[in-house]
Write a structure and sequence with these properties.
The protein is α+β, with helices and mostly antiparallel strands and about 200 residues long. It has one domain: SOS response associated peptidase-like (hypothetical protein yedk fold). It has 4 helices and 15 strands. The longest helix has 14 residues, at about 10-20.
């Protein structure tokens, strides 16, 4: 599961460099640092006419009958589910982050990052709803680094999987079944206000 992620200042700078390399002709905008919550609009990596592109999108597909948002989709069943199938086949995206948060059964907050990579690239799918592009993050079974906190985690792409995830539909099933890299988790202590 992934209910919140974050981009730190160093990650924002590194993503800015990637944006400059992708498209020097257009003003794409700056990556903001900070926590990202469902319903926030952020920049995600997509493709347009067989080229990389950073696009603005809102986190969460609207629920059809209830209020609220669908923020995650299970990698194992996304192809079987009507709200996700078309997007998974044709509109895959990558959600860049420094790390993500997860809470254990006792509501303790943990932060997960990859010490081997400066950016986590989470697999996602994007869909258009009226005038807004929206995305969800794909999740998979938790690996050993995450299992004691939660049984699900984002599907994190390796460097080798980034290009095929966006551009090669024949690799989709293989990537959906892959095991994310081991992560480093640490307890996140929030400052409490005395007032």
């Amino acid at each position: 599961m992934c209910g919140r992620y974050y981009i730190d200042e160093d990650t924002a700078i590194e993503l800015g460099k990637i944006i400059e390399e992708l498209d020097r002709k257009h003003q794409i905008g700056k990556i903001k640092a900070g926590d990202v919550f469902p319903s926030n609009e952020v920049k995600i990596l997509t493709s347009h006419e067989n080229h990389w592109e950073f696009s603005d999108a809102t986190w969460g597909f609207p629920k059809y009958k209830d209020k609220g948002l669908i923020i995650n989709a299970r990698a194992e069943t996304a192809l079987e589910k009507k709200p996700f199938r078309e997007a998974l086949l044709k509109r895959r995206c990558i959600v860049p982050a420094k790390g993500f948060y997860e809470w254990d059964a006792s509501k303790n907050k943990f932060c997960f990052t990859n010490e081997d990579e400066s950016i986590l690239f989470m697999a996602g799918i994007i869909e258009r709803y009226e005038t807004t592009s929206r995305f969800v993050i794909l999740t998979t079974n938790a690996n050993a680094s995450m299992l004691r906190i939660h049984d699900r985690m984002p599907l994190i792409l390796s460097q080798e999987q980034i290009k095929p995830w966006i551009f090669d539909q024949t690799k989709t099933n293989e990537i959906l079944k892959s095991t994310p890299p081991l992560l480093t988790g640490f307890a996140q202590i929030e400052q409490l206000s005395l007032w």
